[in-house]
Every structure is written in C-alpha cells, then in structure tokens.
Amino acid sequence: MTATGTAGEPxxxxxxxxxxxxERAIPDVVDVARADAATRVLVVAGDAAPLAGADALxxxxxDAVPDGAEWALLGRDDEGRALLTAVxxxxxxxxxxxxxxxxxLRSVGGTLDAFDSSAFVEALSLGRWLLxxxxxxxxxxxxxxxxxxxxxxxxxxxxxxxxxxxPAVIVAITSATDPDLLLLGSNALWGADRFSCFAGFVEAGxxxxxxxxxxxxxxxxxxxxxxxYRGSQAWPYPRSLMLGFFAEARDDAAARADGEExxxxxxxTRDEIGRSLEGASDIxxxxxxxxxxxxxxxxxxxxx
Length: 304
Description:
single chain
C-alpha cells in the first residue's frame, strides 16, 4: 500500500473546532455548560439536524432545547464557547421548528462548512451510540453516562463502555491498461442507474490491504495490484470509519458482478464520469457528503 497527498480532505473529515477532550473528565462539565448563556447546542433528531439556511446548521442556546434529550460535549469554538449536542430519537415530529427545516447528513453534509460538517458528523456518530447503548452488553444493566457523554459505566458489573467505530474500506478501481477507465458497481438494493465504489467492513484479524483485495474480488471479480490509500472520514451509518483507496485492476476483462450484493459492474470513461458529476447524465453517482464522491471526483480530475 502506498500513501499519497490529497487535493482536499473528504467533506466529513475536516476539522472545524477543538474537541476539548481534556475537559470530559471534569465533573458536571455538561451541566455547567448548559447553564451558560453563551453555550451553543446542535440538536440531532434521528439522523437530521436543524438548518439556519441551505448550507448552514442552526445552533440554539441550551435553555431552548426541549426536554428529553441525551446530552454530550462536542468541544469549544474559537471564542471558547462550549459546544454541546442534544440528541433525540427519530420521530414523526421534529423537536422544534428550524428556520430552514431539518435535513440528514447524507443530503447536506457536503455543502456545509468545516465547522458545521465536523459538528454534524461528530454529533450524529456520538448520538447514535448514546441512544442505542444504554444497557451494558455484558450483564444487561442500565448504564450511567460519564466523560461528558463519551463513556458509559455499568453500576452492576463495573465495566466501562465507549462509542464503537467499525473500519470499512471503500475502493475505486482503475484500469490495468487505460487511464481513462474507472470501474464502479451498482448495489442490488439501488436503482439500475446508480453506481458507486466498492466497499465493505474490515473483518476480524484482517489488514486494510487484505480487506481491499478481498472485497474487490468478492464484489467485482477483479484481482488488484497496486493499492493506494486516499483518505478517511467518519460515516455514522451506523458507526463506520470509511477508509478510501484507489486500486489498479490486473485484468479489466475479469470484471463481473457477484449477483448478490452487486447487481452490475461497469467500466466508465472519464467523459462519462464528468457528465455524471455535472448532473448531465442518467447515471447517478454518490452524494457530495460521501468519500465515494471524493474518490470519483479526484480520479476524474487526475488527482491520485
């Protein structure tokens, strides 16, 4: 595996503020922040957050958050103000009326600035764990929150639990012979006109390089040679860390769909990818919030 420089970080990998991790051990740090009028809160309901405009999140004061949320410290902004998240489960109604409505990370993550995008992915990743992991997986007891929302402790068996992150590889496959060809696949659950990179979770005891070669072979029939790391970003669906790669096929003609997870594979020309990125094609590519979009766009631009 070789490393390469980047033309720009994936949209959900940017750093917008300090996480203030050293403050998580301070007793009652969240309660103190909630009592501070300067504190800003990002509310998340299900996988949606409130919008102040088409490309900006709406942050509200702590005393404006409805009751019933799970709270956690996100960090501090450049002015030293505490940044919190207040998390609600998905429901028929949103917790409050936002200026520009509510939207999910998939739809707006690629249009937000670094501050808002990093806050949204952090709040959603942490929030899903806060809602889904209330009980100790070892003994089933109700756990107690600690570390400003970043850990849970079981009062019965004493175990301490932390948010999980599952590594997954995502791969854009380049041609063995033609620099203007890119192999993409269409998932069996999608429409026939939707294509993306090949992806899968890293298995127990497996390296990233091995996972790339296994997943690509399983889904596309392609044996790859050179594997080049491109970048990573969190993807909280449900709790993944997506690690992006380019991989070069050894034999273009070997491409075939597995017929189960992948319904079709296709070699696309650079011109076809360009038209799709511009929205001038019937082929649908991944949304701008995803690292798959970054891989495809970088390949089209000749960035490796």
